[in-house]
Amino acid sequence: IWENGTGNLILRATDFRLQDSSGNSMAVANSGGGVGLYHNAAIKLDTTSGGIDVTGSINASGGLTLAGNLEINSTYPRIKLTDTNNNSDYSIINNDGNFGIFDDTNGTYRLSINSSGNVGIGTTSPSKKLDVVGTAKISGTTELGDTATGLRFIISSTDVFRIDGSDTAGNGWN
Question: Model pTM?
Answer without folding.
Answer: 0.62
